Amino acid sequence: MENNEQPQEKKHINIKILDNEGTTIECKVKRHTTFSKILDEYAKATNKSPKELKVALRGKFLSLEQTPNCVAMEDGDSLEIMSTQIGG
């Protein structure tokens, strides 16, 4: 009997979180964890307010309700965390 099952996709991926101050944090996240939760954990670790931060991937801002799976993130990808700017 043959095993026709496809290999299961990894449940976790390792990502890097980069901010505009040059800080890099490496973490392991589930593919279905929302960016809102990732942002909250980053804010806690860096003592910043999540309300003042945005998440981007490859220069494009992401919805906080999206997940790494939604945007096809792979092991080793980097998220950018940026402070929101008011004015011009």
From TrEMBL:
InterPro entries the UniProt entry points to: Rad60/SUMO-like_dom (IPR022617), Ubiquitin-like_dom (IPR000626), Ubiquitin-like_domsf (IPR029071)
Pfam families xrefs: Rad60-SLD (PF11976)
SUPFAM superfamilies documented for this protein: Ubiquitin-like
CDD domains, per database record: Ubl_SUMO_like
TM regions (residue ranges): none
Gene3D superfamilies on file: Phosphatidylinositol 3-kinase Catalytic Subunit, Chain A, domain 1 (3.10.20.90)
Domain called Ubiquitin-like: residue spans: 11-88
PANTHER family reported in the protein's UniProt record: SMALL UBIQUITIN-RELATED MODIFIER
Protein name: Ubiquitin-like protein
UniProt organism field: Spraguea lophii (strain 42_110)
Lineage of the species this protein comes from: Eukaryota, Fungi, Fungi incertae sedis, Microsporidia, Spragueidae
